[in-house]
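pls read this protein:
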Amino acid sequence: MGFLENILKRKEIGVIVSPAAGEVISIRKVSDPTFGEEILGKGVAVIPKEGKFHAPADGTVTTVFPTGHAVAVTTDEGAEVLIHIGIDTVKLNGEHFRVLAQEGQKVKAGELLLEADLEQIQAAGYEIVTPVVICNSADYSDIGTETDREVAVGDTIIMLRK
């Protein structure tokens, strides 16, 4: 059964789309144990091809980190989605990041939230792998993912069921 057929059969209550173009990989491949061991929640990671990061679903921006390296969106269905650009990039203190979203802002899936200069981040010695985590994973009976494939902004990467 294909990915899309699986979505339709399972009657998902929430779909999270890729916030960036690139390769989606298992969250377990992320070197930081906070993400790789799913301490913050279940999800996937995207190795971005470009430095534009978009809303993963329709919802509300609940947190914008002052350093610009991460943003959280609560979907209209209640999923708390964290997009964390890179590993340990908080140490850059906002350098190479541009925040476009504001806390409390209503967003549509695909709306541009943040920009990052990926080349400069890598030149500074940081990984650019971008975890996409469902922070309230315990609220869902099933969190489905399909990894190890190329994605465009807006492609489904996580399916949620209560």
